Structures are given as C-alpha cells and as structure tokens.
C-alpha cells in the first residue's frame, strides 16, 4: 500500500522476496491497494466513503475493487518479481476465489468496531461487500510453494452464494499465515514500528504488553487492527509477527538477518 509507493522501495521489496526464495524460505505475499482503488473510483465518478477506516463497498464499488486489486495491483507485483528473478523464481497472482482459498462472510461491523474501541451507534453499519475471513484452504499455496512459485494474493474472498468481499489485507495475511503455520508474518507499514508511551520504537514486545498498551490508549486508531492481526496470527501457531517500516529499502532482509532489526517483533 502506502509503504511502497516509490519505485526504489518496490524494487527492493521484489529483490528481498526473491532472495528469500533462493535460500529456502517460502514467501507468500498478501497486498492491499486502497490508494489505487480510490483513484479508479474517482475516475469512474464514484465517491469513496469510509466508516471507521473501512470503505463502504456497494456492488458497483466491489466490481471496481476486484478489478483493481485482482488485476492492476496484483499483476504489477507479479510482473515486478518475475522481471527481477529472470525466470529462476516465478510469481503467480491469485485472489481468494482461486482454489477456494478464502471463504468469507459479511463483516459484522458492530462487533468489529467494538473490538477496536471505535463503536459509534449513530454510524452506518451496513458496509456492503466488506468481508471477514471465515476459512482458508491453503492447498493451492502449498502446491505453488513446492513448485517454486511465489504466491501473490489479492484480499478478495467469496461466499457460497457467489458474492465477492473486500477484506482487510492485514486480516487476510494473518489468516493465511495461521493456515500455513508460518514461521513469520510480516506487516509492512509507513511508520517505524510500534511505539511506547514515550514515543520510542519498540524492538520487541509480547502479546500481553500489546493488550495492555491498547487498553491504556498507547496503541490506537488504525494501528489497532494491524496489532490485532498480529495477535490473531500468533494465536494460530505462527511463531513470530513483525511490523516493519516499509519505507526502508530491504527492510525485510534487515529485520530477518540482523540482530536489532528495523521494526517491532511480536511474540506470545
């Protein structure tokens, strides 16, 4: 998303994931695309409306979301990785519809806003095609990893009635990491990492400390869903979660292979 809006950062990201694949680590990429969706809605003469940080997504908006995320954004990342790898490592782009990867349901907006401490009864709670993950079927991802592909996933799910849902990319990443029992889940942001009450970046923190920081208001706003995604992944047996500053070139390699890292490491 916003953390990778510069060419040099995109290039460094592609190089990092290719390197990980070369040395035997199997990266799976989940991406968002909020800014790009906003741009295309504007071109189509449609207004972007948000409630509590979530885009209200009617059927017409969902069609554009699916085209932008599953087409434009997804394939640009795929092309970037394939271009740098020279064909030795291959990326393939999919959405949650492919291989029945992400079964979804309509987001319970009231429950969601209560969970992040942002419930306002007067707000519109019918967000349309905004979804949450109900189940992840990792079979396709396992096959792609074994065949030396890097999966690039757009966070679009489906239900049994054929409806498509736009899902928060952080929650999709957490759910997929949990389904794969991943060693790590890494979230790229446009901040330096989690900060304590003094405004200093935390190198390492555990879930108990995070919950205390949320309760005390140290962690607030848009960072709460990202932190809750980290906690969800850890509760599903992912070993570690990381929140990194995606504005730092090669932040992924720096976090994994240096002692101090460049963001915040989260453990149970």
Summarize the structure.
By secondary structure, this protein is an alpha/beta fold. 41% of the residues lie in helices and 21% in strands. A hairpin with a 5-residue loop joins strand 8 and strand 9.
Could you explain how this protein is built, in words?
The chain is of the alpha/beta class and 268 residues long. The chain has 9 helices and 13 strands. The protein has a 4-stranded mixed β-sheet with strand order 5-6-9-8. A 4-stranded mixed β-sheet has the order 10-12-13-11, sandwiched between helices. The protein has a 3-stranded parallel β-sheet with strand order 1-7-4, sandwiched between helices. Strand 2 and strand 3 form a beta hairpin. The longest helix has 27 residues. The two termini are 27 Å apart.
Low-confidence stretches: none
The 3D shape can be described as globular
Query: Roughly what fraction of the amino acids lie in strands?
Result: 15-25%
The main sheet orders its strands as 5-6-9-8
Number of strands: 13
Rg measurement, Å: 18 Å
Query: Structural class given helices, strands, pairing?
Result: alpha/beta
**Euclidean distance between termini CA atoms:** 27 Å
Count of separate DSSP helical elements:
9
Oligomer: single chain
Order of helices and strands: HEHEEHEEHEHEEEHEEHHEHE
- Main beta-sheet annotation: 4 strands, mixed
Quick check: average pLDDT?
91
Give the fraction of residues assigned to helices: 40-55%
């Amino acid at each position: 998303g916003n953390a990778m809006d510069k060419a040099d950062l995109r290039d460094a990201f592609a190089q990092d994931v290719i390197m990980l694949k070369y040395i035997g680590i199997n990266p799976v990429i989940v991406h968002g695309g909020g800014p790009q969706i906003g741009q295309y809605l504007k071109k189509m003469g449609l207004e972007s409306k948000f409630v509590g940080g979530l885009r209200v997504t009617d059927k017409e908006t969902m069609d554009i979301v699916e085209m932008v995320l599953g087409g434009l954004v997804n394939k640009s990342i795929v092309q970037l990785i394939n271009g740098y790898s020279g064909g030795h490592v291959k990326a393939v782009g999919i959405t949650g519809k492919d291989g029945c990867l992400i079964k979804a349901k309509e987001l319970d907006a009231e429950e969601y806003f209560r969970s992040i401490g942002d419930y306002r009864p007067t707000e519109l709670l019918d967000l349309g095609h905004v979804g949450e993950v109900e189940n992840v079927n990792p079979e396709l991802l396992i096959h792609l990893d074994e065949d030396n592909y890097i999966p690039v996933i757009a966070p679009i799910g489906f239900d049994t009635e054929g409806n498509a849902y736009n899902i928060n990319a952080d929650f999709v990443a957490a759910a997929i990491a949990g389904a794969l029992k991943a060693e790590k889940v890494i979230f790229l942001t446009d901040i330096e990492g989690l900060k304590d009450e003094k405004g200093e970046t935390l190198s390492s923190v555990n879930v108990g400390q995070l919950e205390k920081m949320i309760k005390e208001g140290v962690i607030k706003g848009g960072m709460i869903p990202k932190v809750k995604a980290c906690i969800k992944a850890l509760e599903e047996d992912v070993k570690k979660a990381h929140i990194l500053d995606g504005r730092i070139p090669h932040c992924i390699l720096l976090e994994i292979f240096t002692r101090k890292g460049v963001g915040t490491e989260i453990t149970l």
